[in-house]
Amino acid sequence: MKATSMSVADTISWYCAIVLLGLILLASVRENSSEDVQPVRGSQLFDRPCDEIYVVGEGETLHTISDKCDDPFIVERNPHIQDPDDVFPGLVIKITPSKSRN
């Protein structure tokens, strides 16, 4: 009797795990499909909006990002930047514009 109840419990836990995994995958697919993702090419890189969380792109420097986003205090607000000259594509920084942008 004890072996049968353990077998039933194991089966139920596997079904629950599979259902949970399916729900997670379904939510992930829905979330990704709702976004209108378009690749950034050429000069579009410098036309990107300045979101609060900004990912440095190819050819960008802290100076160009500061000018574009109107945030002269990028280094001060991002303590993980040890060397302002060592900025690379993919680096995530926080942007806080000093005035509202149109």
TrEMBL record:
Signal peptide: none
Entry keyword annotation includes Ion transport: no
Domain LysM: 54-96
Gene3D superfamilies reported in the protein's UniProt record: LysM domain
Transmembrane segments annotated in the record for this chain: 12-29
InterPro entries: LysM (IPR018392), LysM_dom_sf (IPR036779)
Pfam families: LysM
CDD domains: LysM
Entry keywords, A to Z: Membrane, Transmembrane, Transmembrane helix
Name listed for the protein in its UniProt record: LysM domain-containing protein
UniProt organism field: Juglans regia (English walnut)
